[in-house]
Known about the structure:
Blueprint: E1 3-7, E2 10-17, H1 19-30, E3 41-44, E4 49-53, H2 58-77, H3 86-110
Parallel strand pairs: 2-4
Antiparallel strand pairs: 1-2, 3-4
Helix pairs in contact: 2-3
Amino acid sequence: MPYSFRMNNREWKILEISQDEMKKILKDYDGKVENYGQYFGSTFTKNQVIYLDKDMHRDQKRQTLLHELMHCYIYNYLFELETLNLENLCDISACSHDIIHEIVENYFKNTTL
């Protein structure tokens, strides 16, 4: 069952899927899958979905979701990454922290793991 959240007035979904499903989605997206072994998660801006490996330990799943939500945040709120510097990075972290952590907390409260 997908979990939905909103970021910058856009609806996103989080789906937990198997490694085989993850590799198929990645291959369908760009025509290839690098042989990295395990894919923990992936964010697809085209369909506004975050995919997570359903078989990860809860702690790794939490860390991966935080990482993927940062991709989501950057896609939704930032437009100029070429001039990114330390001050910009600190602003991004400070501004995104509450938003991202609230989504993660709600996700883990409302999903069966």
